[in-house]
Task: structure prediction
Amino acid sequence: MGLENVEHVVLVLSGKGGVGKSSVTIQLALSLSQQGHNVGILDIDLTGPSIPRLLNLEDKKVRQAPGGWLPVPVHDAIEQDQQGTSSETSRSETSQQGRRGSLHALSLAFLLPSRDSAVIWRGPKKTAMIRQFVSDVLWPPNTEYLLIDTPPGTSDEHIAIVEELHKLATATPTIQNGQPYLNISTPAPSLAGAVVVTTPQAISTSDVRKELNFCVKTQVPVLGVIENMSGYRCPCCGEISNVFSRGGGEIMAQECGVPYLGSVPIDTTFGELVEGVKHAQRTASDSEDSVPLKNELVERYKECGLCTIFNEYTSKLVSHIGR
Result:
């Protein structure tokens, strides 16, 4: 089983394309990491993977190890002392206060020959790929949260991932020496639930309602709804203008009886971060695979206007999952 090092799995879903599932996944992961949690991102949008691009890791490739694939490291876990210096540390050495968790990612894009390669697969091959992602990826020990970025809709990828996670959660005893035997050395991860992303417009919420219905039928708890692109935040004064209306996601959540996490405005500072506009160049003294701490995305994200918003949302999720 490839998820024995994972504690909690969170799906990021939406019935509508283009609502920002991947950007929400990235920001949830960065916020969880800032709060000291070790995080993984699994991108199962097979035909349109966005995670490598958003992480500026399009040139990276998955490495093969005995037993499976190794996800691509985004940044390491560090412990920050009171003087502001940092050093690598293990999860068990200290409390989570002042600690930054690690982040790793896996996407089909890391396996393709180039970023322009098209994936033209029928359903059975997509399902087989999802199963391989679940069984053959060696996530680092003590990965607390695995965020799964999904494609739009309720199709093959969604059915396959939910089926595989439910199989793992249902521990069935096997027969060994004529007696029932339950292997508890490799505990199954907890399918914590799903974060559902929408935009305020009615055309979006009508499709996302179908995703909520999918969660009910497949027994996936809904952890909360996030209304993305809820207004535009001016980079000069910080005022939010309701370009695409506002409140549709909250109304939908209330009518469907699911938690509402909150709204996220359009913020150009996040676009600048992921597009690399403010990304500092490596110095000549840096090795090929080494990036100064201040240039890492997780550190630069602290300057983004959305950082505080997502820190609040991830705190809610952690509290809800830990109940």
